[in-house]
Amino acid sequence: MGLQDNVISYGSALVLSLLLLLPLLAKGCDMFTGQWVKDASYPLYDPSTCPFIRREFACKKNGRPDLDYPTFRWQPHGCELARFNGVDFLQKNRGKKIMFVGDSLSLNQWQSLTCMLHSSVPKSPYTITTQGTITTFTFQEYGVEIKIDRNEYLVDIVSEKIGNVMKLDSINDGKNWLGMDTLIFNTWHWWSRKSWDYIQIGRNITKDMDRMEAFEIALGTWGKWVDTVVDTRKTRVFFQGISPSHYNGTLWGEPTAHSCEGQKEPLLGTNYPGGLPPEVGVLKRALGKITKPVTLLDITMLSLLRKDGHPSIYGLGGRNDCSHWCLSGVPDTWNEILYNYML
């Protein structure tokens, strides 16, 4: 294929993407209400062509025998999502820096996006570098940097004489997030675990507190950081939303299931029988207090419907992981929605 053919191919794909986007814009489409449908043109990439994919997400390579789970496409009600176009994404973000900030679910989405982009330009040179908590995937031909800062709580955890102290009113790590063109934040997965010795708010120090309350205070601190530090004329801010786990089959109408192990298809309706988890309400309440524009990638419901999308025993070390997601898989849809917002 010659250069002219490449240009025509890229142009045709871009026109198609924009045509698909028109009804979404015209109707004020809710991209997060819909259902999963089988689509023979999915997945968007073969994970075997992604040489840097992490083992915990490489379900196919780890021996998962059923391969229907990546072949479902998210279909919003009343509109169409523009299909992800990696070349267009790189062209639109040429010379820009995109950073994910959060826990291992942010890593899951970051890994998904780097695979989606690499599969679109497989011969384009790239580098992967790590400095401290930040890993940067650079598409050298486009000058695009896709970064991930592993930060489970967004607020600070500081090592002091008494032990590790979570400071709910402090974000010193925010200096790492400046100068980005796009920021995608996430936190929640680790809040049910205790990876600190004390919690501090102002001068008050306690061994522990209600985790949902601590979560909301931390989100408030992060929201104030966005309002006071981020120049949203230069930096677009997203929040990933709450990625759900599937360890209780009663919540999806299958009381005998005690995890996602053996699940081979999504719930094909539009609603999750167990409803939304309470942390979603906490997150939305906190986002409502931020005065600067922050876009919520409200991926909870569409992900709740995907009880089949987790690594289960085909992740890291054979442990039953019903929190993270196989790649290719559900996080590709999160990034497809992110792409539609960027359009």
Automatic annotation (TrEMBL):
* Bilayer topology annotation: Single-pass membrane protein
The domain of life for this entry's organism is: Eukaryota
Q: Which residues form the signal peptide?
A: 1-28
Q: Does the keyword Translocase apply?
A: no
Gene Ontology, cellular component aspect? Golgi apparatus; membrane
This chain's source organism reads Raphanus sativus (Radish)
The main location is: membrane
Q: Where in the cell is it found?
A: Membrane
Similarity comment text for this entry: Belongs to the PC-esterase family. TBL subfamily.
- Keyword line: Membrane, Signal, Signal-anchor, Transmembrane, Transmembrane helix
Its protein name is Protein trichome birefringence-like 41
Trichome birefringence-like N-terminal domain ranges (all copies): 28-80
A single Gene Ontology MF term assigned here is: O-acetyltransferase activity
Q: Where is the Trichome birefringence-like C-terminal domain?
A: 81-340
User: Taxonomic classification, please?
Assistant: Eukaryota, Viridiplantae, Streptophyta, Embryophyta, Tracheophyta
